[in-house]
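Why should sequence recovery work at all? Because a backbone constrains its sequence more than one might expect. Tight turns favour small or flexible residues, buried strands favour hydrophobic ones, and helices have their own preferences. The token representation captures these environments compactly. In the example below, the structure is given first.
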């Protein structure tokens, strides 16, 4: 089972190609309070990244940086650049294939970069990237099997010289960039995975338990039955789960079931009785109590509220992963 792809699908991750920039000298762009994660891939540099706290980093060709949602920052051609910044927003339209990049600055092009915005359904608790700490830097070159520079260069070539199917190829590459980012971060930071959802990557026992839960969430799983299926003791499974993911097997099982239930309540017309059975509850009252503890309201009230909220919201841009 591909756990990462399944969680990305459940959490509604979607990627939107942002600005494609070709810049000379004396340029900068600024992102403030973006509701989406921003990924900047440097095609030619150097490019300086400045944070609101004053920290600055130099990025070279091939480097990729991911910044969490809401983190204001500036990119430019010089350390401490005071040039007026071009404002960039996650809602900015994607570049049109064949129309060329956004030109900034003066003189010959020295810096080129692509930005991708990623957002997700924040109502789901199980997320791949929400627990990744802070800013993620991926240096150029192959890291953990992730050839990010090659992928981004291919994206730029498609935008520069569009052919049959270019929009579909670009959409697919946006999805691939996210998966490769996760691969690269995992390879660079094996110890930082501990305590996050990705903690199972370093522990085959925990991975096996999670795969069993995901494969059959309606099964009558207990810590004892999961441990028995993996041929270990209850104490061993509980200890390894807590060490790798900072949560118990029972807590993870409940969280995954509630996420599945929330998505079905929002997106389907299935009855509460059917949904409760599909996520492992043998009675509607027990499911209702568990759901109310997790989400603060009954399944019926949750369904009504999220559908009312969705009807008022504009359709989110980007390809859903």
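From this structural description, the recovered sequence reads:
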């Amino acid at each position: 089972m591909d756990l990462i792809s399944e969680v990305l699908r459940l959490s509604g991750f979607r990627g939107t190609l942002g600005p494609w920039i070709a810049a000379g000298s004396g340029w900068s762009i600024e992102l403030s309070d973006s509701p989406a994660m921003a990924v900047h891939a440097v095609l030619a540099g150097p490019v300086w990244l400045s944070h609101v706290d004053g920290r600055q980093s130099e990025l070279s060709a091939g480097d990729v940086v991911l910044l969490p949602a809401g983190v204001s920052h500036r990119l430019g051609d010089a350390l401490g650049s005071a040039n007026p910044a071009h404002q960039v927003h996650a809602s900015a339209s994607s570049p049109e294939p064949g129309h060329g990049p956004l030109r900034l600055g003066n003189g010959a092009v020295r810096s080129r970069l692509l930005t991708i915005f990623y957002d997700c359904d924040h109502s789901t608790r199980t997320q791949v990237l929400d627990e990744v700490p802070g800013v993620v830097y991926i240096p150029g070159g192959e890291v953990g099997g992730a050839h990010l520079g090659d992928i981004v260069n291919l994206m730029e070539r498609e935008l520069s010289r569009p052919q049959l199917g270019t929009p579909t190829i670009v959409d697919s590459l946006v999805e691939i960039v996210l998966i490769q980012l996760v691969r690269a971060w995992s390879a660079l930071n094996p110890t930082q995975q501990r305590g996050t959802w990705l903690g199972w990557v370093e522990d085959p026992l925990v991975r096996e338990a999670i795969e069993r839960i995901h494969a059959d969430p309606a099964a009558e799983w207990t810590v004892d039955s999961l441990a028995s299926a993996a041929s270990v003791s209850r104490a061993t499974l509980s200890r390894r789960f807590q060490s790798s993911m900072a949560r118990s097997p029972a807590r993870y099982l409940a969280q995954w079931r509630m996420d599945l239930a929330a998505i079905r309540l929002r997106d389907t017309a299935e009855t509460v009785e059917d949904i409760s059975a599909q996520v492992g509850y043998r009675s509607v009252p027990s499911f209702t109590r568990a759901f109310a503890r997790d989400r603060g309201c009954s399944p019926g009230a949750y369904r009504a509220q999220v559908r009312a909220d969705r009807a008022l919201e504009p359709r989110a841009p980007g390809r859903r992963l």
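A few observations help interpret the result. The chain has a mean pLDDT of 85.
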